[in-house]
Amino acid sequence: MTAVAELMDYADVIERFNPVLGLEVHVELNTNTKMFCGCPNEFGGEPNTKVCPTCLGLPGALPVVNGKAVEGAIRIGLALNCEIAEWCRFARKNYFYPDMPKNFQTSQYDEPIAFNGYLDVTLDDGEVVRVEIERAHMEEDTGKSLHVGGATGRIHGAEHSLLDYNRAGVPLIEIVTKPIEGTGERAPEVARAYVTALRDLLRALDVSDVRMDQGSLRCDANVSLMAKDATEFGTRTETKNVNSLRSVERAVRYEMTRQAAILAEGGSIKQETRHFQETDGSTSSGRTKETAEDYRYFPEPDLVPIAPSREWVEELRGTLPEMPSERRKRIQQEWSLSDEALRDLLNVGAVDLVAATVEAGASPDEARGWWVNTLAQEANTREVELADLAITPKQVAEVIGLVSSGELTNKLAKEVVQGVLAGEGEPREVVEKRGLKVVSDDSALLSAIDDALAAQPDVAEKIRGGKVAAAGAIVGAVMKATKGQADAKRVRELIIERVGS
Fold it and tell me: How far apart are CA 141 and CA 37, in angstroms?
């Protein structure tokens, strides 16, 4: 069992050290086929059924570049304000690992397709941080290892391992930042905001489904610390394959406190990869981190260089959609949102969800209320991102429509949402299954009102005496009798009419 690391108080870390970040994000493209062969590019499926001699690395099999993947790489580079190479090529990155059948990864090394870009990132309080992009290069994904018999699901302690090569050869774009300095105590927040902004950008480009839970968007977080008077970067660690926005922030914060404790005691940081533990937000040691020399990069002899014409690049630039930052400015103006209201939307990751709900027929105010309040609370309870809740903007718009038409009260609508989240079907199906429709038959309501008035004759006298507020007690009794399925406003109207008649 791994010993628990000593940690330094976060405030002390900030007082004594300057953090430096480097974020590497791997994006699986949503092409129909893999990067260098015609196998289907699909998530899941029976193990080792979406493979061929090329992606299995069998002798004599030759790769062919997926043109759609190159197009996606260029569009990503342009959206990140990068320069697009006039000539670039693939290289072989040599290392042995069981889930990589060729024993090398076809990647790009010193000649990436896109380089020298930036992405402006907005933090929770509205501050904008520019994150500079070193490169965005093309490569292929590896297969997947399943370690069986251990307590952690990792190779250490496992009885045996299984290999699934369905993912081997899936097109990847790796986006690498330049060192991110000067963020101080906000370093973890900047890391999360950057990956969030990048995910939103990639979703807008429609080049990936950016499902972090399925591994189509993964972040490697490099962290190092510099003493306040230092002029050189400290030794970095790389926490691999962090697969949620919240975890990116937690991983960076943990590494800062762990490294600071070691340095404060006169120790040194080992350059290594580390694994993030979702259960407690800690990281654990993986393997010694290789350098570029260890990988013995050399040009891929089986693939021709890529030389995108300037005309094609400009043609692809014309296909770029409205960028998320521009869209937010437009939406803020169209919906008449204050800066604070927009920040609330951004903080819970609801801008695109609200916009899609509005497009499905809801009003901006109603859509915003449901996503920022009710559904954000559900996401927090489940400890998932808002976008990962099992409910779509179209379904939320349908629930809002049922409330607007009087078929549901707000209370009943929340029960319907619970049913949708529980997988019970579409909103109207949940209404029928749970019997949640509003009681709109006046005769049924009057019967319940008469029963309540008979049980509380003193309340009826107060209402007749002009104390209309006393009707609230009868409304409450009727709502209880109808299991909350009555329209409280209509019930109040009927009470006043009944007592006054």
Answer: 13
**Which 3-state string (H, E, C) describes 33-44?**
ECCCCCCECCCC
Strand-pair category, 237-242 with 114-122 = unpaired
Q: Is 58 left (phi over 0), alpha (psi -120 to 50) or beta?
A: beta
CB 210 within 8 A of CB 218: no
DSSP code string of 152-197: SSSSTT-SEEEEE-TTTT-EEEEEEEPPB-S-GGGHHHHHHHHHHH
Sign of CA dihedral 48, 53, 57, 62: negative
Residue among 177, 212, 174, 176 at smallest CA distance from 196: 212
Which CATH topology does 442-500 take? Arc Repressor Mutant, subunit A (1.10.10)
Q: Among residues of the chain, what percentage have pLDDT more than 90? A: 62
pLDDT at residue 190 tops 80: yes
38 and 52 Cβ atoms separated by less than 8 Å: yes
Reported residue count of the chain is: 501
Domain with CATH 1.10.10.410 in the chain: 442-500
Cβ pair 56, 165 in contact under 8 A:
yes
Separation CA 260–CA 12 (nearest Å): 9
Per the model's pLDDT, the better-predicted residue between 438 and 13 turns out to be: 13
Give the model's confidence band at 497: pLDDT under 50 very low, under 70 low, under 90 confident, else very high. low
